[in-house]
Amino acid sequence: MNPDSLVDWFTAHNGTFDRAALTFAPIDNLGWGAFALRDLQQDHTLFSLPRDLTLSTRTSSLPPLIGEEDWKKHGLHVSWAGLILCLMWEAAQGESSKWSTYLASLPITFDTPMFWSLEDLEQLKGTAVLDKIGKEQAENDYANKVVPILKSRTDLFGTEHPDSRFSLEAYHVMGSRILSRSFQVEAQPRVDAHEGAEMDLDNSSPLPHGNDDTENIEEDVESDDDDGDDPANVAMVPMADMLNARYGCANAKLFDEDRDLRMVTTRSVRQGEQIWNTYGDLPNSELLRRYGHVDQVPLAEGGIGNPADIVEIRADLVMEVIVQNYPEWAGPRSAERVDWWLEEGGDDVFVVDSSNDVPEEISSFVRLLMMSAPEWEKTKRKSRLPKPKEDEAALSVTADVVRRRLAEYPTTIEDDEALLRAEQVPEKLIPFNLKHAIVVRLGEMRILRGLLRGVSARLESSRTPPQSGSASESRKRKADGTVTSGRAGRTAKR
After folding, report:
1. Which of 165, 268, 312, 383 might form a disulfide with 92, Cβ 3.0–4.6 angstroms?
2. Helices in 112-181 by DSSP H: which ranges?
3. Locate the SET domain: which residues (predicted)?
4. CA-CA distance, 447 to 112, in Å (whole number)?
């Protein structure tokens, strides 16, 4: 890539670029980065671009050529199939496309798991990455949405199929470009009561490629009025996608005005410092899936890692443990309660962070499944999810769930730490993909181990009988029928 050519193209299409403020330079194994050429103050505009220079289904030349009726008939208005096809189309037009120079600057190879071998993917077993790659769904969209329009509109796409410009491989490349570089750009900017017409456009929540992490995008687009779910709002933003990101380092963000987008510093930046955008401080599992890299920064508790790391625990795993511990609860009894849980808005995946606290949703779900029949009937009548409760039985189930979740990884914490230590010897360098997999699963396993320690400690405490004279003992019913209130010298007869 020639950044000077990109800047020239950018300014020739009505973008503004402060050449005295920043420049682009290569970074070892990380592509390019933006660096400050001088000290910059907060609120300094680095560059701006007109909204019509963004590339989306709203600005591409393809949708009008196909027509709205055919566009919707082939399902190109939902998920990412339409936008990916637009990128392939614009790239196929060569220099006659408005975005030819920009598209030529984008990467054609990626380190994301979408392109990993099956052997490498095995190293991600147990992590939150495997179920979210979306390769199968992306290929289904290509076969069921893109191929039919390619064949039906030979006047646009030619008679040769598969044309390399519109092949499945090209579809995956363009989809990965969108996943790693797109921003949410609405048709009209949202008006913020405190900031006028400006809207923060950081790409902390880019739509996923193929299928959503926890929801089905196609259902959302058809049933939800929120513009944030509309694939038409997903856009490639030239120049803005040149900035890298790292946990806690963001010093610039993209803002929206009526007609222009502008990248503005959010704090002062010293000469020579890298200018960082934000991806929303994501966990390493998401950074790897979307962008092909991981973050490792000093942790408050010592060592290095990503403070934003999380672990996902499936509700069906919790149910399996309960049924295993209490076989009599299997069958229609538990199935009815799970269905009710989901209908009432309960999640089917629980998120655990590094706080070592049991998520209230897990405790609530465990309590629901372990309720007596009368409690269950009462809960149904109230139509409210049960409040979390940590008694001995619930804590025991939670501990078993965490142990089962830890067993899903192919290695242990000690195994992976040994692998990383061994890498200090030059001849034992770890392959790139394996190292990323190790970093992701280490972060998750450490969270689970911390949670298990916390749960085990609370479980042990719940099993320890109170010492004579303790506050809890003093509140127990006395044999003579009196109950002490816990306050000195005061008793009450029943």
Report:
1. 165
2. 118-122, 135-141, 147-152, 154-157, 168-181
3. 20-280
4. 23
Pick the residue with more confidence: 390 or 469? 390
CA distance 109 to 321: 42
Tokens of 287: 């950074």
pTM: 0.82
With beta carbons less than 8 A apart as the criterion, state whether 325 and 334 touch.
no
For 423, other C-beta atoms within 10 Å of its C-beta total: 14
pLDDT, tens digit, for every residue of 434-490?
A: 999 999 999 999 999 999 999 999 888 877 665 555 444 443 333 333 322 332 333
All structural domains of the chain: 3-293 (3.90.1410.10), 311-465 (3.90.1420.10)
pLDDT tens across 69-108, in order?
999 999 999 989 999 999 999 999 999 999 999 999 999 9
Residue 416 CA to residue 451 CA, distance in Å, equals: 19
Determine the Cα–Cα distance for residues 114 and 183; give it in Å rounded to an integer.
20
Please tell me the distance from the alpha carbon of residue 59 to that of residue 213, in angstroms, as a whole number: 27
pLDDT in tens, 153-201: 999 999 887 789 999 999 999 999 999 999 999 886 554 433 333 333 4
In 296-335, beta strands by DSSP E: 297-298, 304-305, 311-314
Q: Which 8-state DSSP code applies to residue 260?
A: E
Contact 374, 406 (CB under 8 A): no
Least confident of 149-163, 329-343, 401-415, 471-485: 471-485
CB neighbours (10 Å) of residue 42? 11
Q: Which two three-digit tokens encode residue 356?
A: 């070592």
182-184/244-245 β-pairing: unpaired
Q: How far apart are CA 139 and CA 143, in angstroms?
A: 6
Tokens standing for residue 53 = 């220079």
Strand partners, 122: none
**Alpha-carbon distance 482 to 475, whole Å?**
10
CA distances to 94, 140, 162, 163 from 154, in Å: 18, 21, 12, 11
